[in-house]
Amino acid sequence: MELTYVHLITLVATIIVVIGSGIYSARTVKSAEGYSLGGRSSGVPLIAGSIAGTVIGGGATVGTAQLAFSLGLSAWWFTLGSGIGFIIMGLFYARPLRKSGLETIPQYLVLNYGKLAGPLASIIASIGIFFSAVASCLPGIQIVMAMFHVSPWLAAIIILVLVLAYVFFGGMKGAGVSGFMKLIIIWVTLFIAGGTALFALRDLPSSAVVFPAYPWFSLFGNGVGNGLGNLFSLIVGIICTQTYIQAVFSAADSRTAAVGAFTAALVTIPVGLPSIVVAMFMHVAHPDVLPILVLPSYLVQYQPAWLGGIGLAGILLSLIGSISGLTFGIGTMVSKDFCYELFKIKTNKTVLWVNRFTILVATFMAAVIAILNLKSQVLFWNYMSMALRGGGVFLPLSLAIFAPGKLTAKWAIASMILSTAAAIGSKLIGALPIDPLFVGLTVSAGVIIIGIIYGAVEKNKAPLVEQDSHQH
Q1: What is the CATH number of the domain that holds 239?
Q2: Residue 375 burial by CB count (10 A; 0-12/13-18/19+): exposed, middle or buried?
Q3: pLDDT grade, residue 6 (50/70/90)?
Q4: How many domains, the chain?
């Protein structure tokens, strides 16, 4: 991609304004809780900005266009499934989680399943979230390389610096403000681009021949099993992601938390559609383009330079915001569940800096893995991430919220360990024709059912033993 001076000026100016606004809004953040939860005073726009600003990253924009370049409408599952996940979160999970007054998912599990559940859930969730950060680093590095003609490592350093500026200083409040502004930019530029691509497609005389109804206009163009599997993995993964739940915990009250989740869904669901239209146009007009660069290439070649520059900034900010939000969730779990709870390091300043240092390390590691896998599919990493974080945590967390006391600590922990091991094992074997999420959830459900039955039997035995001892 060859950028003009107008492209570069509008791109850099947009990034400075958005990230600068986030840093300025969070200038009063001094404490660890203020950093991770924004003082528990977030309103609907800030919650929606934090949630949607994280999920609308590599998968929702560049990754969707990359897949749509080959398959069409079935690439919509990522933003559609994410939105459905947020609706379910708002309906069933947001209120009880916000009422708990806690800060992390593992803390909620500790309340129900004992101290060991916290670090275990942190490790499982962090591994899963980390792979999503890789998914946003991949296109981020590729786009910076293409725009500025630099090496992968220099592109990774630029991404790292931008991530640190986005979230390192401001935490939840800074990420929420930047996320909200980024969403406005993404919405406006993507829908203008999608509109122009749609008119161009409509005027193509051969579009019906090039794009047969199946697979191009079917949500199940990649197979019914794949489509439903992707939807379910997104729902489960989103409910088990610290970053999204953290936004819920930061809400002023439980109602605000639920409305924030619904608003995030309304923002997220449509955003994949313009990327799909652009990708289908590029499939006809530029069949040799590198699929991961489909969306930014269209903005440079087919939009006015000033708008293309803002659009490129929006894509970069979407990737940076996603990496920031995800690594921020990892940082909060490490600082709270390990530093604060496990090692009893409770100095406010230390906890704050452990959070920030974890963001730095996690982003660097994600960038390294992305560089080593530059030709891989963005959505592959996203879906694998959802499977790993959801397989081990989803059912124990749901039971803790909706049926507390049903499952004992040892069975909950056994479920988390065995289901995560099964999900990872199925991925490593590679030959299994089943999504690793379903492997993990099946094992988790099996262990939980055995645990509930065993607990019920033991409970029934207890009165009999007591009665027998009274007779003697």
Answers
A1: 1.20.1730.10
A2: exposed
A3: very high
A4: 1
Q: What is the mean pLDDT of residues 437-456?
A: 91
422, part of any domain: no
Question: How many CA atoms lie within 13 Å of 382's alpha carbon, on the beta-carbon side?
Answer: 36
Instruction: Supply the pTM of this predicted model.
Output: 0.82
Q: Which of 285, 319, 312 is nearest to 296 (CA)?
A: 312
Quote the pLDDT of residue 207: 67
Q: Which residue has the higher pLDDT, 208 or 445?
A: 445
Give the Cα separation of 343 and 119 in Å (integer): 11
Cα-Cα-Cα-Cα torsion 199, 200, 203, 208, nearest 10 degrees, comes to -100
Give domain status of residue 90, yes or no: yes
Q: Write out the residue range of the structural domain in which residue 312 sits.
A: 5-386
Query: What crossing angle do the helices spanning 305-333 and 242-249 adopt, rounded to 10°?
Result: 80
Q: Could you give phi then psi for residue 251, rounded to 5 degrees?
A: -65, 150
> Residue 361: which region, alpha, beta or left (left: phi > 0; alpha: psi -120 to 50)?
alpha
pLDDT tens digit sequence for 241-261? 777 887 888 888 888 889 999
Please state, in angstroms and rounded to a whole number, the distance separating the CA atoms of residues 237 and 329: 14
Label residue 36 by pLDDT band (50, 70, 90): very low
Q: Which residue has the higher pLDDT, 92 or 166?
A: 92
**Whole-angstrom distance, CA of residue 122 vs CA of residue 139:** 27
Which has more confidence, 234 or 54?
A: 234
Q: Tell me which residue of 13, 73, 455 sits closest to 273, measured CA to CA.
A: 73
Please count the other Cβ atoms lying within 10 Å of the Cβ belonging to residue 194: 20
Closest by alpha carbon to 378, among 160, 134, 128, 200? 134
Q: How would you write 319-346 as a 3-class SS string?
A: HHHHHHHHHHHHHHHHHHHHHHCCCCCC
- Pick the range with the lowest mean pLDDT from 44-48, 152-156, 159-163, 375-379: 375-379
In a domain, 184, yes or no: yes
Cβ–Cβ under 8 Å, residues 256 and 247: no
In a domain, 146, yes or no: yes
